[in-house]
Design goal:
heterotetramer, A mainly alpha, B mainly alpha, C alpha+beta, D mainly alpha, A: mainly alpha, 3 helices, 86% helix, elongated, D: mainly alpha
């Protein structure tokens, strides 16, 4: 029961950061600032969703698998952000 | 039951959207995209109807056939894309000629040889 | 290129652990896991020769708390800037001369900085790391120097 | 109940909107980008329909590989002026098709057990626990065998389009990536991890969603990443070893089917041996699918730009 409430709270907070990141993506003035919004806010948002889902996991293996998903997504985000930032820079974005 | 209706109707609409794109847009890449939208719309229609079981489980036979379909659609897309690219190399065009005004036959031949 | 058996063994153990996490330690999966880990170790040696210790993963727990804190404050920071009506951002570029060598160490630093508050890496120019900052007024250089030290502990130059 | 129906309706509206956007987009790149988004949203739809295997295939192949292939095509094909036009007659015809299909859906929405009971009854004899894998590799193995051949035939077709002087070359165009750059480093780190995940997906396919096609796509993707990152080179199309890899899976499949003629009929597996047979087919098929899919994305040998 308490775990369920905490899950709802964590996943709700995670969704809030996804929304905030999307607001930043729409409002920020240039490509690079928008990348900030996506990397930071979504990293935290997904982390909170994973934490909330982990509380519902039946065993430790599922928790580890969820953490693995988060880590792989982080690695992808950190790499893709650098690649996009570089390519936007070479295309002449400010 | 609602899921069958919602996704079945969405699949029906997607087939129409893809058909329209295929009929109206001339660029070969756009036609390939539109064709893929028709295909995935049909898959969705099929998959939604596969969900009509009384207990709400998804029928595995249509699922297997859809997976087969997705893979074959990819193979066809790759072949179509390669043909479109070669067609551009040989003729310089990115769209097939409109049926209503065919190019003169001698011109077509010289383009294909070049 | 001589491969160190110890490093190959470490990599194999890492891939085997990955398999155990994925399969929840299912017994009938173990032979496949062993074969998969062997294939992955060979691939990793082909792509990144196992001649020296590049990752000191045992130091990971030591830097984890700060990384999590950085993720939290980075998310909060960007959410607050995005949601405030006046949108207080001052985007700009900073060049940072890192002592880390090119390749994995510098890319790891760039990746880490891209997840921390206020900074985004865009590769290098003339050996300098190009950093995009959401607020050029903040003291970026000193916080980047701290991150650099942490990466230095984790990724061998 | 209401919340989940609302989610389904919202998702379907989004899927249709993105599809319309892809058809109507002004530039080629935008059309392909929206098509990728469309594929990913469809994958979520498949999960909602309880068809997780299809969701994995749609996300990996329909959105991922098709996306990479068509992004490359958008860069190579000229963007001819092709303004989105509103044509009334085609619009009405397409509307009629959609309405007809929609009416069919409405008239068919009576609960039907379909083939679920039949598959459940025979699942124990199939050798695997995932009903979709049982259908793909045992009950309707014929389809899958022919499909795996179709992939190779499509690749032969793509290669056949190469100009004669390039025939011996490596597929695709040469990649130039700076050593130690971000992509280069990522291309050295990720492939072994992707290899582990790919092998896991074939293995789990016997019990749960997963299988040769999804796993083959993951392997193809990491190989393509290594090629794009400049750390691996695609083999020349003439190399015999690689040609053998292309047909290994279909060949093992065919041999297993012929072995079935001893037991009863072509493509029938004795229940006691079915699991071993299916695993042997799945693993070799994964390898062949991975190589074929990646080579289909790379395309024919091309002149350097």
């Amino acid at each position: 029961m308490i775990a369920d409430a905490v899950t709802v709270l964590l996943i709700g907070a995670g969704l809030f950061f996804f929304v905030a990141g999307t607001v930043g993506f729409v409002r920020f003035p240039d490509v690079h600032s928008r990348l900030h919004a996506l990397t930071k806010a979504d990293n935290l948002g997904l982390g909170l969703v994973v934490l909330g889902a982990a509380l519902q996991a039946p065993d430790a293996a599922t928790v580890l698998k969820l953490v693995l998903v988060w880590l792989l997504t982080l690695a992808a985000a950190a790499t893709v952000a650098q690649l996009l930032a570089r390519s936007a820079l070479e295309d002449g974005a400010p | 039951m609602t899921a069958t209706l919602v996704y079945g109707l969405a699949g029906s609409v997607l087939v129409g959207v893809g058909l329209y794109g295929f009929a109206v847009r001339r660029h070969l890449l756009r036609q390939i995209l539109a064709f893929n939208i028709i295909g995935s719309g049909l898959f969705l229609l099929f998959g939604a109807l596969a969900r009509r079981t009384p207990d709400g489980t998804s029928d595995p036979v249509p699922q297997a056939m859809i997976i087969t379909g997705i893979v074959v659609a990819f193979a066809a897309t790759a072949l179509a894309e390669a043909l479109a690219e070669r067609y551009q190399e040989l003729t310089g065009r990115t769209a097939l000629e409109e049926d209503s005004k065919p190019a003169p036959p001698d011109e077509q031949e010289s383009e294909l040889r070049g | 290129m001589p491969a160190s058996p110890l490093i190959l063994a470490k990599r194999f153990a890492l891939f085997a652990a990955l398999w155990l996490v994925l399969t929840a330690g299912a017994l009938d999966g173990l032979p496949f896991g062993a074969a998969a880990a062997a294939a992955a170790t060979w691939t990793s040696h082909r792509l990144l020769p196992a001649d020296r210790d590049r990752l000191r993963l045992h130091r990971l727990p030591a830097i984890l708390p700060r990384f999590l804190w950085g993720s939290l404050s980075g998310g909060l920071d960007v959410a607050a800037r995005a949601l405030r009506p006046r949108m207080p951002i001052r985007p700009g570029w900073v060049r940072y001369r890192s002592a880390l060598p090119a390749g994995l160490p510098l890319v790891a630093l760039g990746g880490e900085l891209s997840l921390m508050p206020g900074t985004l890496a865009a590769g290098t120019r003339e050996g300098d790391l190009l950093l995009h900052c959401l607020d050029v007024g903040a003291d970026v250089v000193s916080s980047v120097a701290v991150e650099e030290q942490r990466i230095r502990g984790l990724v061998a130059p | 109940m209401i919340a989940s129906a609302a989610f389904d309706i919202l998702l379907c509206l989004l899927i249709v909107t993105v599809a319309v956007g892809s058809v109507a987009a002004r530039d080629l790149f935008g059309a392909v980008a929206l098509y990728i988004v469309y594929g990913l949203l469809l994958a979520i739809g498949w999960v909602r329909l309880g068809a997780v295997d299809v969701g994995l295939a749609e996300g990996a192949i329909g959105a991922g590989l098709t996306g990479v292939l068509l992004l490359g095509a958008a860069a190579r094909l000229k963007a001819a002026p092709d303004p989105p036009r509103l044509r009334i007659v085609p619009l009405l015809l397409c509307l009629a098709v959609s309405l007809g299909l929609g009416a069919a859906v409405l008239s068919l929405s009576v609960p039907q057990p379909g083939l679920v009971p039949l598959v459940q009854e025979n699942l124990a004899a199939s050798g695997v626990g995932n009903p979709v894998t049982a259908v793909l590799l045992n009950f309707r193995g014929w389809d899958t065998l022919v499909e795996s051949v179709v992939l190779v035939v499509a690749l032969v077709g793509v290669w056949a389009l190469a100009p004669d002087d390039l025939w011996d070359g490596r597929p695709g165009a040469a990649q130039r990536v700076k050593r130690d750059a971000v992509l280069n480093t990522f291309g050295r780190l990720l492939p072994p991890v992707g290899l582990m995940v790919g092998i896991y997906i074939v293995w789990i396919g016997a019990y749960a969603p997963g299988g040769a096609f999804q796993a083959g796509t993951v392997l193809a993707a990491v190989w393509l990443l290594a090629i794009m990152a400049g750390v691996a080179e695609p083999p020349p199309v003439r190399r015999p070893l690689w040609r053998a890899l292309l047909v290994l899976g279909p060949a093992v499949f065919l041999l297993a089917g012929l072995h079935g003629t001893l037991w009863g009929a072509f493509m029938s597996f004795a229940p006691a041996k079915a699991k071993t047979m299916i695993m042997a087919i799945e693993f070799t098929l994964t390898l062949s699918i991975a190589v074929t899919l990646a080579m289909l994305v790379l395309g024919r040998p091309r002149r350097p730009a």
